[in-house]
Amino acid sequence: EIGGVKIDKDDVVRDDPTNNVPDTIFTKLGLQLHRRDQHPLGILKNAIYDYFDMNYSTKFVKFDDLCPIVSVKQNFDDVLVPADHVSRSYNDTYYIDAQTVLRCHTSAHQAELFRKGHTHFLVIGDVYRRDSIDSTHYPVFHQMEGVRVFSTDELEKSGMDGTSYAAIDLKKCLEGLARHLFGAVEMRWVDTYFPFTNPSFELEIYFKEQWLEVLGCGVTEQEILKRNGRENNVAWAFGLGLERLAMVLFDIPDIRLFWSTDERFTCQFSEGKLGVKFKPFSKFPPCYKDMSFWISDAFTENNLCEVVRGITGDLVEEVKLIDNFTNKKGMTSHCYRIAYRSMERSLTDDEINQLQWKVREEVESKLKVVLR
Ligand code: PHE
Predict the structure, then answer these.
(1) Which processes are annotated in GO (biological process) (predicted)?
(2) Which among 42, 273, 337, 347 has most CB atoms closer than 10 A?
């Protein structure tokens, strides 16, 4: 079962020519880390639930098992993502076939939940994005979406225009949530753009001497409400990244650890205990390997990272461009440094050399580049 919708993973046909979901990603479907009460992501989810339960007399309805396989319409069209937006590209999103994707955000469920009549809801789930590799990026992560629809009554009573009223309420709600999770914390609002909200904001919190973006939010575009049976209402929505917050709250240094089944990781967390600081069981040394090649026009870093992840699994910590030049003939060369490090054990030279040889082979055969 994947989510509330019964899907036999064997029934998902992945032989469409447009399919770009590798096995390493497909095997993550249905794991639902956010539904484990002893896992940092589950503990965080429950703490956010508590905040909404305590502060609102109208209950927020929670959905944490909606199917991550959604239509292009749900993921993009329904939330007004323009036809030419980069997030729709095969380079950024996992497609099962031309009409079906692994959701890249929990906003994919907004429209259907509006249509079903929900006015206060939270959607928590695994989301999927093709991306580069470093300690804070992993192609599968978890989001929580929150949506509140205001009644026409409440808006009238306020005497304000609906958009300003909703924006003020939204900021108050999320500042309260940040304090609930972090205690006294410095925060700031940054104006931004999302296709589905206007105005749109990001909330940043000050942590370890830098500003960290923790969520996106805004006042829902009227067009979305209108199309889904809420023509006369006003609403706000937010989407926050659970890993980002959990890394800060639990001191988790690398995003791969969330997927670890090593007891030395899993045993450190218990139900209901937010903010227990993770003690690294030992820091194994990284090993660096460089690789240079002439690229073609079709080359993208996301494709490179997928090849590397496909061969090395979670043994890769970072893939970083360290040199980039174009010669007189117009040929462009890239040099990438791959950092290998296991979170759980030390790696042997032999093992790493073998991985690196496989990576070189596949990079050359699959990415149409010329190794130097
Ligand atoms: N869906 C946005 C993202 O993934 C976050 C968001 C949700 C922003 C809802 C505004 C409103 O980045």
Answers:
(1) phenylalanyl-tRNA aminoacylation
(2) 42
Is residue 59 a contact partner of residue 118, using CB atoms and an 8 Å limit? no
Q: Is residue 271 in a domain?
A: no
Distance of alpha carbon 52 from alpha carbon 176, whole angstroms: 10
**194 in contact with ligand 1, CB cutoff 6 A:** yes
Looking at the structure, do residues 183 and 326 belong to the same domain, yes or no?
no
Which domain does 361 fall in, by range? 287-371
Total domains, the chain: 2
| Ligand 1 atom nearest to 146, measured from its CA | 9
In a domain, 60, yes or no: yes
Question: Is 166 inside a domain boundary?
Answer: yes
Yes or no: say if 240 and 143 are a contact pair by the CB < 8 Å rule. yes
Q: What is the pLDDT of residues 13-64, one digit of tens each?
A: 888 999 999 999 999 999 999 999 999 999 999 999 999 999 999 999 999 9
Asked whether the beta carbons of 237 and 122 are under 8 A apart, the reply is no
* Span from the CA of 150 to the centroid of ligand 1 (angstroms): 19
Q: Please check whether residues 311 and 184 belong to one and the same domain.
A: no
Ligand 1: residue of 88, 92, 107, 143 to mutate (most ligand atoms within 8 A of CB) is: 107
Ligand 1: centre distance to CA 101 (Å): 17
Flag the least confident range among 11-25, 65-79, 167-181.
11-25
Distance CA 319, CA 334 (A): 12
Q: Determine whether the shortest distance from the Cβ of 128 to ligand 1 is under 6 A.
A: no
**What is the per-residue pLDDT across 272-285, written as a single tens digit (0 to 9) for each?**
999 899 999 878 89
The model's pTM: 0.94
- CATH code for the domain of 297: 3.30.70.380
Residue 252 sits in the same domain as residue 303: no
- Per-residue pLDDT band for 75 (boundaries 50, 70, 90) equals very high
125 lines ligand 1 (CB under 6 A): no
Indicate if 44 and 85 belong to the same structural domain.
yes
How is residue 18 written in tokens? 């447009």
Query: What φ, ψ does residue 121 adopt, rounded to 5°?
Result: -150, 155
The alpha carbon of 217 and the centre of ligand 1 are apart by a number of angstroms equal to 6
Q: Among the atoms of ligand 1, which is closest to the Cα of residue 217?
A: 10
Q: What's residue 13's pLDDT?
A: 83
In a domain, 247, yes or no: yes
Nearest alpha-carbon partner for 312 in 53, 22, 37, 38: 22
253 and 212, same domain (yes or no): yes
For residue 371, report the distance from its CA to the centre of ligand 1, in Å: 39
The CATH number given to whatever domain includes residue 76 is 3.30.930.10
